[in-house]
Design goal:
This protein is of the alpha/beta class and 207 residues long. It has one domain: HAD superfamily/HAD-like (Rossmann fold). Helices cover 39% and strands 23% of the residues. The protein has helices at 17-24, 28-39, 45-55, 61-68, 77-86, 99-109, 139-151, 168-171, 184-187, and strands at 2-7, 89-98, 113-122, 125-132, 158-162, 176-180, 192-194. Helix 1 (17-24) packs antiparallel against helix 2.
């Protein structure tokens, strides 16, 4: 068995879920600026996430769900996942974004499991609170180590794919580290760099 862990926003999905949700509240520009700083590594991820979600308080939860059901997946996403499965990889998605989006992507694209965060809602509206699996800068690396232990998969059998600063922690524990259309801070940690927005570009590196 081999293991592939992929980021979701701007990696498996073409865009940032939280920025799109911010559009529902009319504050996309403000949220996008914070997202960029976080992905550039200029802001602590936990602080940036809780700040951004706090600004979404009052957004109707039903509209969030509808948006997340219609997100644009990255070109080549399904083809890459199909190739990974044919090459005996377990395929996981780690996302600092939200389960509303990643669970739907699991059904649509066929990866094995998703680990992400949950937007708290009450009476049908976002409360501005968030919790979950991927709240911190170190979360992805921490979860990857746990999965490797559970599955009996070593670093040499692991490939990781991401684009932002919060993907760095999992790059430490994989032999193949793919920076996909990535921020400069992550490219420095990678040994495979892909600048074309097409996940099929990863397929030649699987064997």
């Amino acid at each position: 068995m081999k293991l592939c862990v992929m980021d979701f926003d701007s990696t498996l999905m073409d865009g940032e879920t939280i920025d799109m949700i911010a559009g529902l509240a009319g504050i996309k520009k403000e949220i996008s600026a914070i997202t960029k700083e976080a992905m550039d590594g200029k802001l602590d991820f936990f602080e940036s996430l809780t700040k951004r979600v706090g600004l979404l308080k009052g957004v109707e939860y039903k509209k969030v769900d509808e948006l997340c059901a219609n997100l644009p997946y990255m070109p080549g996403a399904k083809e890459l996942i199909d190739s990974l499965k044919k090459n005996n990889y377990k395929v996981m998605v780690f996302s600092g974004g939200f389960r509303n989006a990643t669970s739907r992507a699991k059904d649509a694209l066929g990866f094995d499991a998703d680990f992400s965060n949950i937007l708290h809602q009450k009476d049908g509206y976002l409360t501005g609170l968030v919790g979950g699996d991927m709240m911190f800068d170190f979360s992805k690396g921490d979860m990857l180590l746990r999965l490797q232990s559970i599955l009996g998969v070593g670093q040499e059998e692991t490939i990781v794919i991401g684009d932002g600063a919060n993907d760095r922690s999992m790059f430490k524990y994989a032999s193949k580290k793919v920076a996909f259309c990535a921020h400069e801070i992550l490219k420095k940690e990678a040994n495979i760099i892909i600048n074309k927005k097409d996940l099929r570009e990863v397929i030649p590196y699987l064997s």
